[in-house]
Design goal:
The protein is mostly helical. It has one domain: Orthogonal Bundle (Tetracycline Repressor, domain 2).
Length: about 200
């Protein structure tokens, strides 16, 4: 089951948008709550009505990227077409959506994770489970259609996600991330290997 842990409110979104811009401009450690309030055009107290700390704001920004990604994966899942093609599109989207979402501030990721890595790792299993639930659905369809070899859709979903984890921005330093073209090419190679292993012969 895919759970929503955060209520999307216009003010909360405004603060998170400001956080993304500040991360691109100054990085995590140089950004203050006052900076965020000023960038969002609101009072400092309003920031703390919605978030308890600067750390929570930036973690919520990561949460939002994953929530939007889940929405995109579900859109592909329910778009119709062969399960194998949708699986390929979903795996590619899993990597490139994240890349595109953090590209403006990818050089600040090391700075942010030097402080937030522990808290992020606590959340990562929840993200992983939510994504696996969506991928298990398309794998089940491929299993039923006889086009994909899938003994346990949930287990295979987690395995194919692990296969692409190394390409995610949060796993790489800003230097390692590279250009979108490089990331896309690496993703396509990994996805091709995954699909080759799953195709029913």
């Amino acid at each position: 089951m895919i759970l929503r842990n955060v209520t999307r409110s216009p003010m909360r979104e405004r603060i998170l948008d400001a956080a993304d811009r500040m991360l691109a401009r100054y990085g995590y450690q140089k950004t203050t709550a006052d900076d965020l309030a000023r960038e969002a055009g609101i009072g400092r107290r309003t920031v703390y009505v919605h978030f308890t700390s600067k750390e929570e704001i930036f973690l919520a920004s990561i949460d939002r990227v994953v929530e939007r990604l889940i929405d995109e994966l579900k859109h592909i899942l329910y778009a119709g077409g062969p399960a194998e093609e949708r699986l390929e599109r979903m795996l590619t989207a899993r990597v490139l959506y994240r890349f595109d979402s953090v590209h403006a501030y990818h050089e600040s990721l090391d700075d942010m994770f030097s402080v937030l890595r522990g808290a992020y790792l606590d959340r990562r299993e929840r993200y992983f489970s939510q994504e696996a639930d969506v991928f298990a659905l398309v794998l089940t369809e491929g299993q039923r259609a006889g086009t994909l070899r899938v003994a346990d859709p949930q287990q295979v979903a987690r395995t194919v996600l692990l296969a692409t984890n190394g390409l995610l921005p949060y796993s790489l330093s800003g230097r390692e991330l590279g250009s979108r073209t490089e990331v896309e090419e690496k993703t396509r190679r990994v996805v091709a290997l995954v699909l080759e292993g799953l195709r029913q012969r």
